[in-house]
Design a protein that fits this description.
Number of strands: 0
Largest sheet: none
Distance between the termini: 24 Å
Structural class: mainly alpha
Strand content: under 5%
C-alpha cells in the first residue's frame, strides 16, 4: 500500500491509539510483532500496523512496511 492509502484508511481514533508511545526496534522485530504486542483491544493487528507505519514512515527502508529498520 502507498503512504496515502494508509493515511486514508485510518481514523482519528486509530491514530490517537499510538500517539506518544515510543519503542526502539531490535533486529529480530517485525512490524507485525510490534503491532500485535502493542495494539489496543479495539484495533486489529493490521490497523495497528498501519497506524505505526503512518506515525513513523522513516522507520522503514524506502517507506516499505515490510522493511523495518532496527534501532
Amino acid at each position: 500500500r502507498s503512504v496515502s492509502q494508509v493515511r486514508q484508511s485510518l481514523s482519528a481514533k486509530e491514530l490517537e491509539a499510538i500517539k506518544g508511545d515510543a519503542y526502539r526496534t531490535k533486529a529480530s522485530d517485525s512490524l507485525w510483532k510490534i503491532a500485535n504486542r502493542s495494539k489496543p483491544s479495539n484495533l486489529s493487528v493490521q490497523q495497528m500496523m498501519e497506524a505505526i507505519y503512518q506515525a513513523n514512515p522513516d522507520a522503514f527502508v524506502n517507506q516499505d512496511m515490510g522493511q523495518l529498520k532496527s534501532g
